[in-house]
User: What shape does this take?
Amino acid sequence: EQLFMDPLLGPKRSVLQQCNLNDYIEANLVYDKDRSETEMNDMLSLIPQASGMVLEGQRIIDRGDIVDAKTYRVLNSFEQAMEKRKATEDEITSTFIGQTIYVLIFICLFTLYLALFRKDYFNKPRSISLLYVMIVVYPILTSLMMEHNILSVYILPFSMAPIFFRVFMDSRTAFIGHMTMVLICAVAVKYQYEFIIVQFVAGLVAIYSLRELSKRSQIFLTALLVTITSAAVYLSLQLIQADDFSKLDRTMYYHFAVNGFFLLFTYPLMLVIEKTFGFVSTVTMFELSNTNNELLRRLSEVAPGTFQHSITVGNLATEIASRIGAKSQLVRTGALYHDIGKMLNPAFFTENQAGINPHDKLNDLESARIIISHVTEGLKLAEKYNLPREIKEFITTHHGAGLAKYFYIHYKNEHPDEEVNEELFRYPGPNPFTREQAILMMSDTVEAASRSLQEYTEESISGLVNRLIDGQVADGNFTDCPITFRDITAAKAVLIERLKAMYHTRIQYPQLKA
Assistant: This one.
């Protein structure tokens, strides 16, 4: 009808009536039910359910008052607000209870793991403290970042925790602790599946690449490997879910790069962890074993024989530790410091004497007191120079609670009818309580005694080693440490091999005949 009323088309009405308008006109206004309802709901949600304002403590209606339209709207609004508030509180309470149960399950499982497989950690409060502090701190940081929408959680260096666990404890605890921490953090993130997979792989790479931290470049390599692996895993997950490369989210890779940069701070933070929790890392052991540091340099100047003895003992003990799977760097460092107490009276120890023996002018009791005092004096020096507790333990245990046998036997021979008080000839102890301490005791005793051999043959060296170590076993010196007979047998073999190599006889060169 609108076309027929047009002044140009009106005269051609008969022609237009013969045409099918459906062939020429397409609808340009289509009813979209879903969109219309969405728009309507959005507009309805903008309509306030209450009008005006009621202050806290204000009286809305009193007994006997007539309920008019305005009062009814106020009461209705109040009822709806209370129901909404109750629903919100119930939802929050339900979520909180669920999260609490979830977290407690993983904390209990982790604690059960420690109780079943790492009972010794419960005797080390610092180890337990580090584990639980890390497991608590990272979920808190993750929750705060998600709540306040601060960047992405992927910039947090989660792999730093398993690195600390691995360096200061062991790889199995590092893995279990890392996974416990990641699974707890997953409660707060949006895409749990991606988060767990990426952090799982990153943690494994960090643990595998730091089997033993001995130099700073290893941290850089670990950070690089963690960054590349995290990006590769995330890319693989995206390719699985997307069918077009153009749809891939490239911004996440910048977050992985930032994460790798933060991992580089693991090295300086390691010192903070050591000082806070009282740990000693392999890097610290390397620094302490540097013979140019003040205490070892002073030992080499004041007691050069003792210094050389300590180096030799360290080499022997290191090879034994490597052979039986003990901590080689720890025992090497302990060997360098175990006799520092001899600096007080160096001339009273045979390795520092030059033909004059001051013990000839002393009685056996006084000589034994001076010899035994090198343990207590060494402990005082260790305290003065702030040496780690592990090094102090080597000083106190390298003679255990044994006797200064030379002077004890000499005194008994000189006084056959006298009841000898063994405590006057006994070292303060305690006996070794770690494999590394037992290794040092064996190496120290054998190396010192080997200097007194009249001839260096395979029989004499083997007899000396077997006699001394079997005597230590018989005296119960190793009853408090987890060393096995197999370890002791391996230690004997190493000592015999090394002493034979050290004291091998050289061939005599022939003289040129004229």
Remarks:
- The mean pLDDT is 87.
- The chain has two domains: 97-277, 291-502.
- The radius of gyration is 40 Å.
- The first helix runs from residue 13 to 17.
